[in-house]
Amino acid sequence: MKTFILIFTSLVFYSCTSSLEPKEYSESPCMDLTYQKLLKMETKKMTNSELEYFKIKDRECKKYMEENSGPDSEKTKSKKNLMWILYGFALVAGVIITVALLDPF
To answer: pTM of the entire structure?
Structure first.
């Protein structure tokens, strides 16, 4: 029985970590430090390389904002939050069961 509980708890941990999508947690290109610095500069004062970098990051930022905003984005976020809450409950239940079976009263 202890083996079963150990396997169950391990599967819960595995399912929590395997569901993470790298794209889901990628950093916003809008938060790039160089891009933030260039936003404060006038385009006339930028060098050619700074201007090119700014244009690239500006496009990436706009694309990122379009993909991560709107009603569909909010629905997805609330579904993911619900999923993590359920995983948390399953994990807590697994720990409680493990402790109860390992330390009989």
So the answer is: 0.46
**How far apart are alpha carbons 10 and 98 in whole angstroms?**
12
Write the pLDDT tens digit of every residue in 27-67.
788 889 999 999 999 989 999 999 999 999 999 999 988 88
Q: Where are the beta strands (DSSP E) in 1-105?
A: none
Q: Count each helix (H run) and each strand (E run) in the chain, helices first.
A: 4, 0
Closest CA to 6 of 83, 102, 82: 102
Chain CA centroid to CA 36, Å:
22
Q: How many CB atoms within 10 Å of residue 57?
A: 19
Backbone angles phi, psi at 41, to 5 degrees: -90, 155
CA distances, 82 to each of 40, 90, 103 (Å): 39, 12, 32
